[in-house]
Amino acid sequence: MTEVRPPAAPSAALWERDEELAAVAEAVDVLCADRHSPGTLLVLRGEAGLGKTALLAETRRIAEQRGCTVWSARGGETLRTVPFNVVRQLLQPALVSMLPEEAREYLGDWYGIAGPALGIADPGDGQADPQGVCEGLVAAVRRLARRDWPLVLLIDDAHWADQETLYWLAVFAERLADLSVLVVVARRPGEITGMSARHLDAVAEAAGRPVTDLSALTPEAAAGLTRATLGENADAAFCREVWAVTGGNPYETVELLAKVQDTELDPVEAHAGELRELNRSARGGGLVARLEELGIDATRFAWAAAILGDGITVDLVAQLATLGPDQAARCAERLRGARILTARDPASAGPAELEFVHPLIATAVYNSIPDALRRAMHGIAARIVTDSGRGAAAAARHLLEVHPDDDEELVWQLREAAREHLAVGAPDAARRCLERALEEPPRPEVHALVLHELGSATFLTAPARTIGHLRTALGMPGLDGDRRVDAVIRLSQALLHNDQMEEAVRTVEAEAARMPAGPTRMRLQAVQFMWEGVHAGESLTPGRSERLAELAATCTGRDNAERALLILRGFDAMMRGENAEEIAEICDRALVNGRLAPGLGWTDNEWGVELLLMLASSYVYTDRLDRAEALYSEALQAYDTAGWGGGHLVLAHAYVGLAHRRRGRLEAAENSLRESLRLAERVGRGLPLYWTATSNLVDTLLARGHVDEAWAMAERHGFAPPYPSTVVLPDPRSVRGRLLLAVGRTKEGVNELEAAEKAAAARGHLNPVHVFAAADLARALTTEDPARAARLAVDVRRRAERLGTDTAIGEALRVAAALDTGQRAVRLAGQAVTYLESSPCQYEHAAARIEYGVLARSVPDLERGEALARSCGADGLVERARAELATGVGRR
């Protein structure tokens, strides 16, 4: 407890806060000591009135004394539906103070992505990716922090921050280790649930230190505060009653003592009994009664201020409360004198002149407005905002509160607000607008359109909701032509992401059957083939591959529907292990002058990312790695430029890693795949993209010889059955079987590889490079069941020769050499080297060269194999080659 007490009531909330202030001072010292020091995050948690705001104000004072730049923002109970509200408060002042060209320069490529969310740039026409926008906001703070170091960010009432800000804050908090900035977050315990609560919990976890829980004043501190305010003549009994009545809440204590001063109550035991009634008048119903005593005009002014929530100016309140300028000015002064409103902190963002003295007062005033009147005032506020030219999105929080009244214009405004929200990367805000539009309700002719738009808004965040909305929309009149087809395809995508693969296929199949022959029907057929092509189970439709081959044979690539069918045919042929030359020729026909056609780019929405990943993967597994790498790199660049994060960026990094792995650049592969898995953790475990990142990373770690790390990675990330219902490259069952063999769990590994081989055969997936279970199984059975191992080796070689790539044939020869002995084994190993030397897959070449060196007792081959392995980052192969060389191979 402090010995030197604050001398006056305004510092009341800092009584008994020595530890908290010491932590703040230490954090500021660390920040100022070195611009390369890691960032610090402090989280203050306490019930209303315990002094969180006062601690933040003191943090500002301490930081500014040390020469820091301080930016601050505050959540508001009635503003939680305003996307990016708090992060805008935080960053806008710094950005608005710049010239437009300067802001562009600081934000760089992120200007067009984060600028609309921050309100400093116009949004684009399409739907912005929320994770990309979040990354842009993180980048914005990074760049501004370097300019304005040492920088302190203060966020008050974070429990009332909008969900988009909390998402950004959770991501930003994870990155503080390499960014010198101090972040102090104040919040109440509880208050919120759902996604916002999870984001706040993530912020607390990222702090790396315990959350600071603020406690109420002790009786001794309450007595000291009472005497500091009322004079040393306040007796002990009176001071004890002050503490008992307020529960030691600093805010309530200050307000109660102010009421005592107003009433000139003598602070002695005889008057202690009056404290409870005085305290009631300072809160809840008592506060409302006190407000009413100020007169109807002042009450209307306070109500209008509560409706506005932020941006409270006398002029704006006058419009909403229908008061004249002089009346409004007098009301503002009266409310300031009654400690209901106060002058806005000049350091805060925005044009506001006033704010409520405390959030408790704002809440009490807002809740005191009669329900019908409150809804009507929100309607007037929406009109004022719209008339000011700030757009439908700015008026949306008011529109959401208006009573449903079959208002066609309101439906239009809410739909327009939803479009604006989607354009800045706030799909949850768009969802709220469209759900409210449905309550109005919309006219029959637009009802299906609203549902369609709602399905698009929830697609990224809630596939199950999307399914319901789109199914309902498709059962109503109003969706025709391309809009209906788009809705059907979007529904099938939602079913796919919700792991309802068969329903996804049937949905587009049924719609295609309704259509006459032509481009639209072909598009739907292509989507059906696409979903069937990524399904990991048994074929849904008998003769699918044959029908796809027949349909693709008629395609010349004249439009994107035909190009899609060619890509699907190429992928299907690759998975089935058909001739690689023919596969590449089919895929090449889907390109225009060797590039993706307009409308088939990585950020085009009509076809989706799955189709292009199929195209690039067909090149990967037919030894056309140059083409695959070009496509994957183009995807990564396109998503970075467009600010697309989430699943798109996860897959881009994963497939770049796959290309590195196939090329033999194992360290680069590992780096890409770790980044993919880091991003995938945010999107959600168990999704196909999560499996893609994990399967590739485990396979790469095994290739590097890092077996223990591969096992730990698999355990940590749930790389075990049950497997996803969609195709993953490389085959996760094969990878897990290889992993089990590597850690010595041979029986389990054999069982897993057998299951992988059986599942692949049932699906017709006979590409021996993608599904390598048979090759690994043959090696594993060499001693236990040599006859079966030999049959498997023959089958692997037959599949490899059918595919015809140097990689496949070379790998098949390696298996055959491992099963044979004597000079025949040497010859087979030599043939494997010859094929793999011509292959673009350098890791496999290194492995074959070392195996040949061992069998042929050739020092030059071992040395060359070691050099190749070292260039690949294959530490396990390097160790093996060195061990063989150390034994004197070639000199025996």
Question: Mean pLDDT, nearest integer?
Answer: 89
- Helix tally? 44
Strand order of the largest sheet: 2-3-4-1-5
Secondary structure tally: strands: 7
- Helical amount among residues, as a percent range? 55-70%
> Termini separation (Å)?
81 Å
Structural class determined from secondary elements: mainly alpha
Model regions low in confidence, pLDDT < 50 over at least 5 residues? 1-10
Pfam families: AAA_16
Protein name: AAA family ATPase
Organism: Streptomyces labedae
Keywords: ATP-binding, Nucleotide-binding
Written description of the protein model:
With 892 residues, the chain is mainly α. Helices cover 65% and strands 4% of the residues. The strands form two sheets. A five-stranded parallel β-sheet has the order 2-3-4-1-5, sandwiched between helices. The model is unreliable at 1-10 (pLDDT under 50). This is AAA family ATPase. It comes from Streptomyces labedae. It holds the Pfam family AAA_16. Keywords: ATP-binding, Nucleotide-binding.
